[in-house]
Amino acid sequence: MTSNRYQPKLICSLAVVSLLLGSNLRAQPPQPERITTIASVGDVVTTKVDLALPDELYQGYLFWHQADELATDVVNYAMLLDAEGSVAHRWDTDLNGGGHTSYLLKSGGLLRTGIRDRSFTSGQPVAATDTLQITDTTGKAIWELSASDIDFNGNNITFHHDMLPMPNGNILVLIYEEISPKDAAAAGWSAGRGKTVWSDGVLEIKPNLEQKSFNDKPEDDGASNSHEVVWYWRFIDHMIQDQNTKAANYGVIADHPEKIDGHFPKRYAPMNAVRQHLNAIDYHAGKDQVLVSSFIYNEIWVIDHSTTIEQAAGSTGGQSGKGGDLLFRYGNPAAYARGTENDRLFQNQHDANWVDEGLPGAGNILVFNNNTDTSSIARVGAGGASAAAAQEALKGTSNVHEIGPTVDNGRYATGKAGTFEAKQIWFWEHADFFAPFQGGARRLPNGNTLLTDTVGKRVWEVASDGDVVVRYNGSAPAFKTFKYSAEQVSDLVSGELKE
Q1: Which end of the chain is more exposed for a tag (fewer CB within 10 A), N or C?
Q2: CA 170, CA 167: separation in Å to the nearest integer?
Q3: Is the predicted pLDDT of residue 29 greater than 50, yes or no?
Q4: pTM of the full predicted structure?
Q5: Is residue 459 a part of any domain in this protein?
Q6: 357 with 1: CB under 8 angstroms?
Q7: Which domain holds residue 362?
Q8: Alpha-carbon distance 139 to 402, whole Å?
Q9: pLDDT tens readout for residues 85-101
Q10: Strand 157-165 relative to strand 171-179: parallel, antiparallel, unpaired?
């Protein structure tokens, strides 16, 4: 659960699958502070609001964070919008970069990631960023951490796609870890011919601030980078492979559903150097588990968080002991050799998240399934204006799955076929709704679900019976959006709309 947030998180995901594989990370001198303002309070930024079922609408303010993964000059900008699409509050920024989101904290500030020095992220996989920030209510950083300040097993890292404020005040963030081909080969991983490969991972970072948690208002007037890395999980520690007989992790893929086949799928050019491509993260405090989504594997994975760093690098012991192997995986049993393409449920999904405590469906998992086929992805290309146009021209139908994993005696259960099981609680799709890249689904307090189409720059709110309640068309893409009640954001919007 994510009780530290006003509402379930907004998740960044990826927009293109082409990589720019290139130079190693290198520290750069800080650049002058740059504050950018896009819209003023009272400006109307939605191009259309089509309210179809006013009696079923969840009344609140829409949190909209611009995030277009294809663009190179995206401003890392967030705003609250009222029912008419007018700006009720804004957070200015000195960062750019797309393909990710920000989170509204109960302090009224943001947790966000972005790029301060583009030369630092040049040559990195898609949606890489170099900066984490906690801001005040205006968008000014009160805490800022550069990826270059983190010594991670002697390897360089960048942040990417998604992060999460935890109830204890810490931050979970997805990372790319720079791995040498020699180290990859030693782990039995044939990860391509480039000079660098990337292993996805999760960092838990403790920002040393005065407040006890994200529920409290910041008391530190100056930006600080003081931090501790208190926990982490690495993909490369949990591989199974059947190509290198000399490596310790050699084995039969189907015999180890708790481990990840480092060579699945067999071909995924040009992304062989990044074979997981995690694009979403969530945390369940009651279970003390982490949920991630892998774009390339077309799966969602659950891992144990109640471990030490050393335990997180080891085996789960078949879920009977602590470790970092997968406790649950779902969406594509072919990824662990216990199914075929016909058994695949997800295709390039984004924004897997547990429904928060107190909301209808609490404890279930929502998965925003883009349902974008591989041939469509290949046509998009490597980014820029032509790629954006190619995205908008794609056709298809996206859908949303709400699932309840099968649990037996506290363990995620597998069925007769040896695949992990889950009950389909709710399913939604609409012939006119296709989000080829990025996007998300979030449950609202009245049982509605908020859907974001990043490429289409639109947000739909749908009722539990599937009816479309309202359609918002925006002027900028958003990875995921959220709605907050007037009471939740009263300190941010009081008096501003009437100025």
Answers
A1: C
A2: 7
A3: no
A4: 0.88
A5: no
A6: yes
A7: 52-58+103-452
A8: 34
A9: 999 999 998 888 777 88
A10: antiparallel
Residue with tokens 């099968």: 406
Pairing outcome for strands 440-443 and 422-429: unpaired
- Cβ neighbours around 473 below 10 Å, total: 15
Q: How far is CA 12 from CA 331, 440, 484, in A?
A: 19, 8, 19
Query: Which residues, 6+ apart, have CB-to-CB distance to 328 below 8 Å?
Result: 301, 302, 405, 412, 420
Q: What is the C-alpha separation between 153 and 378, in angstroms, rounded? A: 34
- Whether residue 20 is contained in a domain is answered as no
The CB-side HSE value for 424 (13 A sphere, CA atoms) comes to 8
Q: Give every CB contact of residue 88 below 8 A, 6+ residues apart in sequence.
A: 41, 61, 79, 80, 81, 82, 489, 492, 493, 496, 497
Q: Collapse the DSSP code of 429 into the 3-class scheme (helix H, G, I; strand E, B; otherwise coil) and give the result.
A: strand
Inside any domain, residue 33: no
pLDDT in tens, 277-314: 899 999 999 999 999 999 999 999 999 999 999 999 99
Which uninterrupted H or E stretch holds 184? Answer: helix 181-186
Please check the confidence at residue 34 and state whether its pLDDT lies above 70: no
Report the domain count for the chain.
Answer: 1
d(CA 379, CA 385): 14
**pLDDT digits over 321-373, tens only?**
689 999 999 999 999 999 999 999 999 999 999 999 999 999 999 999 999 87
User: Quick check: is 481 in a domain?
Assistant: no
